[in-house]
Write a structure and sequence with these properties.
Order of helices and strands: HHHHHHHHHH
Structural class: mainly alpha
Low-confidence stretches: 1-9, 314-325
Strand content: under 5%
Oligomer: single chain
Number of domains: 1
Distance between the termini: 16 Å
Number of helices: 10
Number of strands: 0
Length: 325
């Protein structure tokens, strides 16, 4: 069986399964945001926390890439593609967006909470996902931006409006701008990773490339930050605060594997559901000083769930129509 990109053995993932994976990615993203946010607060430095998170993930991926045959084959395909210029430089830049996301988590989440951080990310993912699908940037090619998909995106954006217009959110404007930029980067990263995965044949190598680039960017940023304000004076002792890298490995791997079955926008909307559902639980367990109240959180979750229902139903019919009769 050959897919649209010419890869032999590719199988169509059912719509419900693809959406379940997307929601799981969102759950892991929200969990990582809380872990990295708490680590940044404990260190008093979000950039150093981001380096620890990305650096630990990179170590895990290097070990897996060496130990697993798929990792070795993928790295060989990567090296061949770079030498032969069949893999352009921009396919290797997904880690920059990942670095922005992790750094933003370390700086903002401890103050504004996971829910408010997530709705900022939602806005960026929704807007960028619509654009990338329309121009055919993702591995699924051009995905029609139909009225239901636009409505789903609008409902997701309305969750952001609930967070920032209902009052009670007393944070600097850039605290919301950073998550928006991170969400834009995440949508671009998912599409880019999906295309790189097609070239190298395995999500493992695409994820490794992300962590190499992201770690390099974050090390430079952390060195500048430490030179300006000094290094952290204490390091938290709770082991769970150092699991952010491992969590990132899992969800970036899943994103690279599933985006060709969903398109960029639908993946983003599924991720939103997982993020918001998880963020409500996390913020109830660890309330943030400037986080939204439970009532607003529940409204945001309801709007996000509705956005996925609206956007996904026509997508399932369109996928089914492509199957040979």
């Amino acid at each position: 069986m050959t897919d649209r990109t010419g890869h032999v053995g590719a199988r169509r993932v059912p719509a419900w399964a693809a959406l379940a994976v997307a929601v799981t990615i969102g759950l892991l993203t929200a969990l990582q945001a809380r872990v990295n946010g708490q680590l940044g607060a404990g260190l008093g430095d979000g950039f150093v926390a981001a380096v620890i998170s990305f650096g630990s993930g990179l170590v895990i991926l290097v070990v897996l890439s060496v130990a697993l045959p798929a990792g070795r084959r993928g790295f060989a395909a990567l090296a061949t593609g770079i030498r032969g210029r069949s893999i352009p430089w921009w396919m290797l830049a997904g880690g920059v967006a990942g670095a922005l996301t992790v750094a933003t988590q370390g700086v903002a989440v401890a103050l504004i909470g996971v829910s408010l951080f997530t709705v900022g990310v939602v806005a960026g993912q929704t807007v960028c996902g619509l654009v990338l699908d329309r121009v055919g940037y993702g591995p699924a090619g051009v995905v029609a931006v139909t009225l239901p998909r636009l409505a789903g995106g609008a409902l997701a954006l309305s969750a952001v409006a609930v967070a920032i217009t209902a009052g009670g959110v007393d944070v600097p404007w850039w605290m919301l701008a950073l998550p928006f930029l991170a969400g834009t980067g995440i949508a671009w990263q998912q599409a880019t990773n999906g295309r790189l995965r097609q070239r190298v044949g395995t999500p493992l190598t695409a994820t490794l490339v992300n962590f190499i680039g992201g770690t390099a960017v974050l090390v430079v940023a952390a060195l500048i930050d430490v030179a300006a304000v000094g290094p952290p004076t204490t390091f938290p002792t709770e082991p769970w605060l150092y699991t952010g890298g491992a969590i990132g490995v899992v969800y970036i791997f899943l994103s690279a594997a599933i985006v060709r079955h969903t398109g960029v926008l639908l993946l983003g909307l599924g991720v939103v559901v997982g993020q918001l559902l998880t963020s409500v639980v996390l913020d109830l367990l660890w309330p943030a000083p400037a986080g939204p109240g439970l009532g607003r959180q529940l409204v945001m979750v309801a709007l996000a769930l509705l956005s996925v229902v609206v956007a996904a139903a026509p997508w399932r019919r369109a996928r089914g129509a492509r199957r040979p009769g």
